[in-house]
Write a structure and sequence with these properties.
Elements: H1 2-8, H2 13-26, E1 29-38, E2 41-51, E3 55-62, E4 65-71, E5 77-78, E6 87-88, H3 112-116, E7 130-137, E8 140-150, E9 154-163, E10 168-177, E11 180-193, E12 211-212, E13 232-235, E14 241-243, H4 244-248, E15 252-258, H5 265-276, E16 282-288, H6 293-298, E17 304-306, E18 320-321, E19 323-327, E20 333-338, H7 347-355
Parallel strand pairs: 15-16, 16-17
Antiparallel strand pairs: 1-2, 1-11, 2-3, 3-4, 5-6, 7-8, 8-9, 9-10, 10-11, 12-18, 13-14, 13-17, 15-19, 19-20
């Protein structure tokens, strides 16, 4: 009889998720801290702040790097700042976390259910999860929802831990398919419900002089250590066709993708002259991020090149301008620099490798 009474007290998965939904519904503003793992490896610590209906700030620290994603009701800014990068994207007046130009895995750094304000979509609607009550997770008593489901396409394993007040304390998801395995773990703490959030939380200062290039196809530049693809260009002064391969042949080259309207160009080129003194067999190649010779000429150097099609520069996977690619004599990328704030992080180490023939 006692066992039946105990079993009768076990809540259903629907009632536990409803408790979570009710908690989110009460939270007109909400902040939390999330420690996450991706495929078993520590991914970082995130701070998520939400003010409904359409303001959100996410800051994620990955080791020494920090990335931010901000939506504000005026502009809808999407910020990706591990190395002074940013891009701009309309918010459409709603909370969302698009894949567009985000640091890989940042979408797994925070619980998207908290952003959406609903548990809907956390588990498949036709599934039959099991429930275990009074499971202690990170010192908190929770109800645990578990689900294992396998079909021809994938193998799914989900666990959700929700406490008595409706807060999700931990989330685990593992999906194995033909494309590989994605395992996400999130430990969620430091909840603050309906705090007074200063406007400054939803504003950010853009890094100095970074102009997005073809936003819909923006990328993160070439991987370090890989050969730089050949790019067909035109000289702004003469109109002569030229290839990047010929321009950098036999030299340690700094290829600068420049924006003629970048206000820091004068400071940038002054810094480049100082950099040139450190690099042996140095050559500077300047490419305009525009498609016309006039814009390339406005950059202010005599040897500027441009891509009239807009397709050639996409081979370099540049996220915006200025982007600077330090390439060794073998045509291999030694170091990439995004934006310009007066610093050249990692330059000295890259130059040492160039001097050794690397």
């Amino acid at each position: 009889m006692l066992m039946l009474l105990i079993l009768g007290q076990v809540p259903s998965s629907e009632s536990i998720l409803k408790r979570y939904d009710q908690f989110l519904a009460r939270a007109n503003s909400l902040s939390m801290v999330v420690k996450s793992k991706f495929n078993g490896r520590e991914m970082g610590t995130a701070k998520l702040v939400i003010a409904r209906p359409n303001r959100m700030s996410i800051t994620v620290k990955f080791g020494i790097h920090e990335a931010s994603f901000v939506l504000n009701q005026e502009e809808g800014l999407e910020i990706d700042r591990p190395n002074s990068m940013y891009s701009e994207h309309p918010a459409f007046g709603q909370l969302y976390l698009p894949d567009f130009n985000l640091i890989p895995m940042i979408r797994h750094a925070v619980p998207t259910s908290a952003i959406r304000g609903t548990s809907m979509g956390m588990i498949p609607p036709t599934s039959k999860p099991t429930v275990a009550t009074k499971v202690v997770v990170n010192g908190v008593v929770t109800d645990q929802i578990s689900l294992k489901q396998k079909d021809q396409m994938s193998d799914l394993d989900i666990k959700i831990w929700i406490d008595a007040t409706g807060r999700m304390v931990k989330f685990y998801s593992r999906v194995a398919s033909m494309q590989g395995t994605v395992q996400v773990e999130q430990d969620i703490s430091a909840y603050v419900v309906n705090p007074k959030v200063p406007d400054a939380v939803f504003n950010t200062r853009r890094p100095l002089g970074f102009s997005p290039y073809e936003l819909a196809r923006a990328d993160y530049a070439l991987p370090q250590g890989e050969a730089v693809p050949n790019v067909q260009l035109k000289a702004a002064d003469s109109g002569k066709a030229e290839s990047l391969k010929n321009l950098i042949a036999g030299k340690n080259s700094l290829v600068l993708i420049a924006d003629p309207d970048f206000p820091g160009n004068s400071a940038l080129f002054k810094a480049l002259r100082e950099v040139s003194m450190k690099i042996p067999d140095f050559k500077l190649v300047v490419l305009s991020n525009r498609r016309d010779p006039g814009s390339a000429k406005r950059i202010g150097v005599s040897n500027a090149f441009y891509d009239p099609t807009g397709k050639e520069l996409l081979k370099l996977a540049i996220p915006g301008a200025p982007t600077m690619l330090l390439i060794n004599k073998k045509g291999v990328l030694a170091q990439a620099f995004f934006g310009f704030d007066g610093q050249w992080e990692g330059l000295d180490k890259a130059v040492d490798l160039l001097k050794k023939g690397g």
